[in-house]
Amino acid sequence: MSVDAALVPDPTLIDRARAWLADDIDPDTRTALDRLLDAAGSGDEGAATELLDAFDGRLEFGTAGLRGALGPGPNRMNRAVVTRAAAGLAAYLHAATPGGETRPVVIGYDARHKSDAFARDTAEVLEGAGIHALVLPHALPTPVLAYAIRHLGAAAGVMVTASHNPPQDNGYKVYLGDGTQIVPPSDSDISRHIDAVGAVRDVSRGDGWTTLGGDVLAAYLDAVVSLVATDSPRAVTIAYTPMHGVGGDVMVQALLRAGFPAPRVVAAQFAPDPDFPTVSFPNPEEPGAMDLALEEGVEVDADVVIANDPDADRCAAAVPTSDRGAHGGPAYRMLRGDELGWLLGWWLHERGATGVFANSIVSSSLLSKMAASYGVEHRETLTGFKWIGRIPGLAFGYEEALGYCVDSADVADKDGVSAALRVVEMVAWLKAQGRTVHDVLDDLAVEYGVHATDQLSVRVDDLSLISAAMSRLRATPPTEVAGLEVEAFEDLEDGLDGLPPTDGVRLRLAQHTRVIVRPSGTEPKLKCYLEVVVPVTSDVEASRLIAAHRLQELKSGMAATLGLR
Fold first, then answer.
1. H helix runs in 97-199, sequence order
2. Calpha distance 301→319 (Å, rounded)
3. DSSP labels for 419-430?
4. Domains of the chain, start order
């Protein structure tokens, strides 16, 4: 059946789609592509648009690996794309060890649609390339995979996950043998090897991989549980949700093995479910995502409410306020990612942590001031734990998007399980002292000033809109935003402060105000990271109100500057 040229203007697209169909190894995506071609041939504009997008280029393999919507075609996540990625990774590892034996590769996966199939394809392709594959025994958190790489002395690791993306997405994250995520030039090297892969059906496969037992998970749990001091109080009430992800059983085991009481779990969100039926977006940062967990906290009068994202590499927390909720129980406030970063930095210092404190460039500047007062080194990195996790001597690292590393010796990546244990330990200790996290936040504000942070984020369907906005910003830098003079306009593509070049700009404004604008590395979003600092002269709450007002004005001002309102 021919397709209307007005609907599909690219005359080669149908031929490319049919060539893909002939080479596809997955009956599910072959059927989906067949139907898409038939629908487009029948004049269905939606099908034609979908077909165009599915074959408009390919998913790029970068420092986030691969991530995208499931479906047929090179611009989607599917078994053919994963087979090529695995073959490219195998070729890269062989090239990195010429004439030598390549160590095994560990493979983990979450509970999203097709994750187990993508993990199996990766194992088969690696075995076919002469590299032994070690597959985790079942769907497990990303930090377990990151731990397993070092623990087993592997050459690399692959985690099949799309983290907190929508249900229709999946992804493919690659770690090297030191347990850190790939950074340039490894990403482009692997990408070149992927480009050199021929027909998918010609890729060699083997079946000799090893499915690991429970020993790796047990060793990981031993490592994270050992972080909690034996003399720490254990009297604490916890509400918890894994948000339909794979963190539930692991988190509960970790809490129990550390001697804490069993948490009250959100039953409707505890079992892994790739459709995430109770949340519109499976990210604890999103409005409404924590509602069921907060209700559970009210039910049990919890001292802290903890959430992991679906692959459990992020940790969110909410704590009671002094107000009473609608049911007479406590009202809860979500801690911002920066606030939890400050609290964990303070707590680790209190527990005697030594080494480097670090945070991403888009996170608050407060941790650097804390580190200076503690007499420890502070480092600022580009966004992402691919940079934070590789800092030598890292004692604590965080990024404002709820990512925390509290044990770089075992997991050189963000880890929502070990971070949650440290949060619970801190809350229990403060409770025993008759104090709360609000008291600590007040102390930090008095000492370092109120640091108010927020984010302006715009999701787009057309990525060219993001490029256009960044180009406009560079071509005509603002001289003021929200009535504040722009004292410095810094292009991060120039590699400022010894950082690698990246797509983003930083504005330093009057009154200790800072804005960073950058495209998201994992989602079709343009993000602005805002920070306002207000010294505390007498009253903390009065200073917070001033900071909140300035932050709101700054947010509106940046929206206007970027043409987003």
1. 115-128, 142-151, 186-195
2. 10
3. HHHHHHHHHHHH
4. 1-56 (no CATH), 61-213 (3.40.120.10), 218-318 (3.40.120.10), 338-444 (3.40.120.10), 449-561 (3.30.310.50)
In angstroms, the Cα distances linking 413 to 126, 146, 153, 390, 455 are 24, 7, 17, 8, 23
Mean pLDDT of 323-329: 61
pLDDT tens, residue by residue, 127-182: 999 999 999 999 999 999 999 999 999 999 999 999 999 999 999 999 999 999 99
Q: Are 526 and 562 in contact (CB under 8 A)?
A: yes
What's the DSSP call for residue 72? Answer: S
Angle at 464 between CA 458 and CA 467, to 5 degrees: 75
**65 has which bridge partners?**
62
Query: 21: phi > 0 → left, psi -120 to 50 → alpha, else beta; which?
Result: alpha
Q: Provide the residue type at 262 as one letter.
A: A
The Cα–Cα gap between 477 and 414 comes to 34
183-210, pLDDT tens digit by residue? 999 999 999 999 999 999 999 999 999 9
CA 245, 250, 256, 259 torsion: positive or negative? negative
* Cβ contact 77:85 at 8 Å: no
Cβ partners under 8 Å of residue 197, min gap 6: 84, 87, 88, 91, 203
Both structure tokens of 203: 């890729």
Q: Which residues pair with 513 in a beta bridge?
A: 509, 532
For residue 247, which of 414, 411, 135, 110 has the smallest C-alpha distance?
110
CA atoms of 114 and 91, how far apart (whole Å): 24
Q: Are 221 and 257 in contact (CB under 8 A)?
A: yes
What angle (nearest 5°) sits at the alpha carbon of residue 262, between those of residues 257 and 267? 125
Band (pLDDT 50/70/90 cuts) for residue 1 is very low
Tell me the per-residue pLDDT of 339-395, one tens digit each, with 9 for 90 and over. 999 999 999 999 999 999 999 999 999 999 999 999 999 999 999 999 999 999 999
CA–CA gap between residue 348 and residue 342 (Å, rounded)? 10
Reduced 3-state DSSP string for 210-259: EECCCHHHHHHHHHHHCCCCCCCCCCCCEEEECCCCCCHHHHHHHHHHCC
Mind telling me the catalytic residues?
Answer: 163
Indicate the burial class of 28 (C-beta count within 10 angstroms; 0-12, 13-18, 19 or more): middle
Distance CA 511, CA 534 (A): 8
pLDDT beyond 90 at 402:
yes
Structure tokens at 106: 């560990």
pLDDT bin (cut points 50, 70, 90) of residue 461 is confident
CA distance 95 to 231: 50
